[in-house]
Write a structure and sequence with these properties.
homodimer, TIM Barrel, 9-stranded mixed beta sheet, 16 helices, 38% helix
Chain lengths: 427, 427
Amino acid sequence: MSILIKNCNLISMDVSREKIEYNVDILIENNRIKKIDKNIDKQCVDKVIDATDKYVLPGFINTHSHIGMSIFRETVDGFILQDWLEKKIWPIEDNLTEEDIYNSSLLSCAEMIKTGTTTVNDHYFFPESVINAVHTAGMRAEITRVLMDIGGDLEPRIIELENLIKNYLNKYDTISINVGIHGFYTASNICVEKARELAKKYNLNVHIHFCENSDEVKQIKDRYDVDVPSKVLQKYFYDINTILAHCVKLSDNDFNILKNLPIHVSHCPISNLKLGCGIANLPKLIENNINVSLGTDGQGSGCNLDMFDTMKFVGLLQKGINEDPTLISAYDVLQMATINGARALNKDSLIGSIVEGKLADLIILDLSNITLQPINDVFSDIVYNAKGTNVITTIVNGKILMENRKLLTIDENSIIKNCKYILKNLK
Amino acid sequence: MSILIKNCNLISMDVSREKIEYNVDILIENNRIKKIDKNIDKQCVDKVIDATDKYVLPGFINTHSHIGMSIFRETVDGFILQDWLEKKIWPIEDNLTEEDIYNSSLLSCAEMIKTGTTTVNDHYFFPESVINAVHTAGMRAEITRVLMDIGGDLEPRIIELENLIKNYLNKYDTISINVGIHGFYTASNICVEKARELAKKYNLNVHIHFCENSDEVKQIKDRYDVDVPSKVLQKYFYDINTILAHCVKLSDNDFNILKNLPIHVSHCPISNLKLGCGIANLPKLIENNINVSLGTDGQGSGCNLDMFDTMKFVGLLQKGINEDPTLISAYDVLQMATINGARALNKDSLIGSIVEGKLADLIILDLSNITLQPINDVFSDIVYNAKGTNVITTIVNGKILMENRKLLTIDENSIIKNCKYILKNLK
């Protein structure tokens, strides 16, 4: 299968190319970007997409989410985290079936494809249901079975995760597995050691909540008898590519340790605000050369999975709280949402930018609507003003998942109906 | 002309009604809401709108904007305020014609109608051009000719404002005039006294930038020899309904003075972040019973005029910076965007909620798209997840300005073309 995108304005996010190139063609062959050039011959191409006056970007990479939780959208307003989990979420989660998680995950995939996300780094339970949903949708994903010591025995969870790894490590070229840990405050050293073993044995990433709020920091210090939480990371994951979700509450000592570890921060500003956690110190992360990618968190705590919403908060928050409007440009934010996400997942040779040879994960934006006009700075217009609805076409692994706003792999109406039905039966 | 909205879910924002009422009809006669009831007879009605499964809200009231500035959208990223004004804005503004401002304002009106704003409180120059645009669009607005002492003589500006008042005070029932002052840091006591005289003589609101950033606070203190800026307000406007845009940098002494003055805050969180000003202390304003309404600011500093974007920031910011997720509910934010805005403009007996007898300014939302589903809490879903594109119909003063996303008073394509042409000729 070959696809030719004709005459687009390309924002490749690749250091080897200009920030924006006008009127270029992109040839996709099978799952790869074969060629980027002016006037590529459209003969012998299976499908031609006219992208005149449209903008093409790499698809967004959401490095922290819980896509099985879409049915919990907007249940958190006015709750503190622990009450929300105990009163709203856990009693319901206990009653969810694998099919419920499949449907809830598929709704999330629909939401992501419609808002331009092509890769998601997930963090939840029922991994086979999540994988089935992601595979049905055609998205790229890293999936896990989150490990923790509370709410049940550890051993069967470890077995479940290792079976998952064995079964899916090479099954789909769009789906990979990592080692998820809920957090150091909910995992014993035994749990963490087992997680380390699996990550080393299969050469996998680790994905963990880290320093989301002050209470968690205190709990980690108590449980592990350390002066700063990063020492636990340093002990167990000094040589493992690790994605840290949140990192809101880092001390100077944490920064000093983290800057020498193979870690990446998944910054989730909307969730951090909504749950009253605080705001991560992005300038200091950047100053310490720590890679910052972006996450939406789940729809319960994070509102939605729309990376445009998240991007809008990233730069604005830092300019505001630091009272410095020159901090973090719109282009910096676009990097966090694309190539930095690829780097976090250790996949930056494959995805995250549009360059010949990389996998074909890209989105086409139509920025012609009046609420974005006139365009003085296209990067600012995308980061601060564009919405998920400006994405008209989403391509993952060379396959078109949405064309002219129509999903091609998911029946929207039936999935909404299914999710409403789950809620009705749970309430 | 009569319009019957059938079978909607009504979020009236009126204290006399339930927060949400399902399957009700709304009868509009001429420019008023005549009746709200179940099963209103549709015979003898000029137009029936089927709003089954749709949500009806009062239109949003944007209490601080500069709608003539749409052509400056996204020119500010990376600039500090003074550099942006001196290097980007002022050199261009000097070359703008009345027709340019008309077109730029009309683009803003299109943006507002498409995103659910029905009333705007504007703050700019070339008031007749702005009025012509607003009148063409059919929106409700309060317009002014901003007064200040810098960049030209005061006297002709005062005359211009008084002529404006005389000419337009009773000309259109959708357009009123107020007394705009740029800020105490750019206005002498003579300017402020003249402004006071006009406001008293014609019984008008005052609209002024106030304590937007630390530098402004310092300048007011120096210029007026006061220990806190609020003392200037107290001296000149103790008996005049005054809308204060921003109020980011208020001291405890300011709060103590402000709580006893007839002032209203127009909170503009996005602009305040983007320009690196900081974040207004909403909990303290609310605790002091100060009315908080919402503003977008202009598209140069505030990104866009979409009140959904602004609403999303309001509550989330306060929960985050105060580390308290129970602060400011989604419903509180909706109040700020509607009835509190009406109160700020001293028009809460006329607009801001949907109740029999009030003027018919309302919007119809379609929340059925998958990125809002499932709906567990409709107020959170509107504030945190809905976008301007969820507004399908906008009605002002009993007149339909947009129906099923199509603008009825503005030709979108020609206005975009006109604004691009202005920019091309200015550069």
